[in-house]
Amino acid sequence: MNTYLIPQTDLQVSRIGFGCMNLGGLWDESLVSAEIQERAFSAIHTAIEHGFNFFDHADIYTFGKSELVFGTFLQQHPGLRERVVLQSKCGIRFAGQPHASAPQRYDFSYGHIIRSVEGSLSRLKTDYLDLLLLHRPDPLMEPEEVARAFEKLHTDGKVRYFGVSNHTSGQIALLKSHITQPLVVNQVQLSLAHPHLIAEGVWFNRNDGVSGHTDNTLDYCRLNKLQIQAWAPLAGGRLFDTTGQADPAAKLTAALIWEMAEHHQTTPEAIALAWLLRHPAKVLPIIGTLNPRRIRAVAAADIVELSREVWYRLFIVSQGVPLP
Ligand SMILES: NC(=O)c1ccc[n+]([C@@H]2O[C@H](COP(=O)([O-])OP(=O)(O)OC[C@H]3O[C@@H](n4cnc5c(N)ncnc54)[C@H](OP(=O)(O)O)[C@@H]3O)[C@@H](O)[C@H]2O)c1
After folding, report:
1. Burial class of residue 98 in the structure, from the number of CB atoms within 10 Å of its CB (0-12 exposed, 13-18 middle, 19+ buried)
2. What separation, in Å, do the N-terminal and C-terminal C-alpha atoms of the chain show?
3. How many CB atoms lie within 10 A of CB 186?
4. DSSP helix/strand/coil, 139
5. N or C: at which end does the chain have fewer Cβ atoms within 10 angstroms?
6. How far is CA 324 from CA 202, 204, 205, 247, in A?
7. Which among 88, 268, 107, 100 has a CA at the least distance from the CA of 191?
8. pTM, entire model
9. Catalytic residue status for 110
10. Residue nearest to ligand 1 atom 47, measured at CA
11. Domain containing 139 — which CATH number?
12. Does a structural domain hold residue 275?
């Protein structure tokens, strides 16, 4: 698979990343069964075979079990750690912890960030993370406190680079004004089923009720050299559903994806990802399937090149109305 250099780093990563959210099975305190572990190992193995070297984690995924299973895989494959790029996230806390009345919430406090990374390192059985992202913006965030935590993790050699996820341009600017290390990633939801960050600039300043809030996050990230990573790039498979409960635009989008797959002699998954890869921001999609057949179908995107006209046909149909 072709690779990207993440801007402002020495990290050379596959153009498509492998999302580890569901590797650990159920989102509860149950143990990882042999069956779940086997499914996870087979998915990781297939991904590596197809050129993926970039793996996306978070401390919370399946209550820590996703990192745990990945760490066991690493342990069983000596030398692999140096050949992969590991990213994890922190900042979301579950309800009921540390006491019963605590709601699910965000926590960018110094203590929570440090504890979270130490937990991830221990589960992943590694001494360092290549990248650490703040998972979702915390309205109670004190940028000085985040800066102090990042400084400590960087100085101790526990995290090489830092970034954010689901953050607006303003939130990133505020963090950047206090953090010494560069912010190099913003991971956001982005797909043909959820193209808002691309569409907002097109619908800007309209008087027809279509315009929404415009934040220019995508342009801000390009300008400031943050890599855009796209989570849920296949919308959990809904992008390919021409029959279900989807609204008319979604059905037409799915139909066009299938038509383009046939035309390009590839898979619908590859067309949906090629639409993201065609964007000049060098978007890195993070896929979430654990199914080896689908991992292969996704990897095919690396060799599909969409023309400007096909890119626009897909974009327009996803909008449900002609462009202004
Ligand atoms: N930063 C954030 O806030 C955030 C939020 C969510 C996710 N993420 C990251 O993004 C990664 C991907 O997210 P995602 O799982 O929502 O992405 P996705 O690739 O859009 O969806 C994958 C899910 O869809 C299912 N699926 C059904 N039909 C499919 C098809 N034809 N092709 C591919 N998948 C199909 C897969 O099930 P099978 O396994 O059965 O194929 C899997 O559960 C996660 O693993 C995580 O690393 C980040």
Report:
1. exposed
2. 37
3. 26
4. coil
5. C
6. 8, 10, 11, 21
7. 268
8. 0.98
9. no
10. 19
11. 3.20.20.100
12. yes
**Which amino acid is residue 217, in one-letter code?**
T
Q: Does residue 18 contact residue 53 with C-beta atoms inside 8 Å?
A: no
The pLDDT value recorded for residue 32 is: 95
288 falls within a domain: yes
Please give the distance, rounded to the nearest whole angstrom, from the Cα atom of residue 86 to the centre of ligand 1: 18
**DSSP reduced 3-state for 187:** strand
Count the domains in the chain: 1
- Nearest residue (by CA) to ligand 1, atom 10, is 231
176 in any annotated domain? yes
Ligand 1: centre distance to CA 234 (Å):
7
What is the structure's pLDDT at 66?
98
Phi, psi of 12 (to 5 degrees): -100, 115
Q: Which domain holds residue 301?
A: 3-240+267-305
Q: Dihedrals φ, ψ of 98, to 5°?
A: -90, -5
Contact 82, 47 (CB under 8 A): no
Instruction: Give the H or E element holding residue 130.
Output: strand 129-134
**pLDDT under 50 in the chain at which residues?**
none
Q: What is the CA(10)–ligand 1 centre distance, in A?
A: 27
Per residue in 95-113, pLDDT (tens digit) is 998 899 999 999 999 999 9
**Which tokens is 46 given?**
């297939």
So what's the pLDDT on residue 20? Answer: 98
Give the distance (Å) from ligand 1 centre to CA of residue 107: 25
Ligand 1 site residues (CB inside 6 A) read 19-22, 56, 165-166, 187, 231-237, 240, 269, 286-291, 294
Tell whether 131 is covered by a domain: yes
Q: Position 191: which residue type?
A: S
